[in-house]
Amino acid sequence: MVTAGDPAPAFGLSDQDGNTVSLTDFSGRKVLVYFYPKADTPGCTTQACGLRDVLGDIGDTAVLGISPDKPAKQKRFDDKYNLGFPLLADEDHAVAESYGAWGEKSMYGRKYMGIIRSAFLVDEKGELADVWPKISPKDTPKNLLKALGG
Predict the structure, then answer these.
(1) Which of 21, 44, 115, 119 is catalytic?
(2) In the annotation, is 49 catalytic?
């Protein structure tokens, strides 16, 4: 897992509209990069809608959601909840791995590899200002607002 003060791992991924979005597209701005397991599931919907609801309170801070879902599934998720920020497809989970957001999980005694719900606040210089591993869906927008002084 990367830690606060580390340079944010760079990436370029397809968004829900098929455009390539890179972290460097947001140079000079703060960016919340968050990883979620699966579009349109209860926890992921709570998290995404919570972030959508604070967009007006975070100034020019960008929000980027990343999951292993294909762009078409991300598009349906965005359309259904009118999220209004890029949802990026990390189908081979390479970006999640670079942030330490991919690892062993267990459910009902079965172990498997998957997304560890995590959020990262990248500062204007491309460094990690805050790192929230294993964050709860409801805490993601709260932590962002707190980190931004809101």
Answers:
(1) 44
(2) no
For residue 79, the surrounding DSSP H or E stretch is helix 71-81
In degrees, to the nearest 5, what angle opens at C-alpha 74 toward C-alphas 102 and 89? 40
The helix (run of H) or strand (run of E) holding residue 48 is helix 42-54
Q: Are 145 and 58 in contact, with CB atoms under 8 Å apart?
A: yes
Q: Give pLDDT tens digits for 65-76.
A: 999 999 999 999
- CB-based contact 51:21 (threshold 8 Å): no
Strand partners, 104: 113
What are the tens digits of pLDDT across the range 126-138? 999 999 999 999 9
**Rounded distance between C-alpha atoms, residue 24 and residue 13, angstroms:** 12
What global pTM score does this model have? 0.96
Cα–Cα distance measured from residue 21 to residue 79, given in angstroms and rounded to the nearest whole number: 18
Whose tokens are 């709570």? That residue is: 46
